Amino acid sequence: MDDLNAFLEPGMLVRHPDRPDWGTGQVQSNIGGKITVNFREEGKVVINGSRVMLLPVIENDSD
User: Fold this and answer.
1) Dihedral Cα 53, 17, 34, 1, nearest 10 deg
2) Residue pair 30/9 in contact by the 8 Å Cβ criterion
3) Phi/psi of residue 22, each to 5°?
4) Blockwise average pLDDT, block size 10, the chain, 63 residues
5) Burial of 8 (0-12, 13-18, 19+ CB in 10 A)
6) What pLDDT is recorded for position 1?
7) Is the pTM of this model over 0.70?
8) Number of neighbours of residue 57 by Cβ within 10 angstroms
9) How far apart are the C-alpha atoms of 56 and 25, rounded to whole Å?
10) Which residues of 11-46 are buried (b: 16+ CB within 10 A; e: fewer)?
């Protein structure tokens, strides 16, 4: 099975497609298809990158 999240790097912001209530998360690590993300409303979660395609969040710096 392919790693759907191979492009994710520490510091990137993401959302879980099935758990919008978790809010935005920051990637902590991406090693061997296991992605550790610290979500605002859920805390630290390890995600199997071959099963869940995380959605990148693009921040707009228009403050």
Assistant:
1) -30
2) yes
3) -75, -15
4) 80 97 97 95 95 89 54
5) buried
6) 44
7) yes
8) 13
9) 9
10) ebbbbbeeeeebebbebeebeebebbbebeeeeeee
Give the number of other CB atoms < 10 A from CB of residue 55: 13
pLDDT digits (tens, 9 = 90+) for 11-22: 999 999 999 999
Helix (H, G, I), strand (E, B) or coil at 31: strand
Tokens (6 digits) for 15:
């959302």
State CA 39 to chain mean position distance. Answer: 8
Single-letter amino acid code for the residue at 47: I
Q: What is the pLDDT of residue 59?
A: 76
- Give the CA dihedral 39, 57, 51, 42, nearest 10 degrees: 10
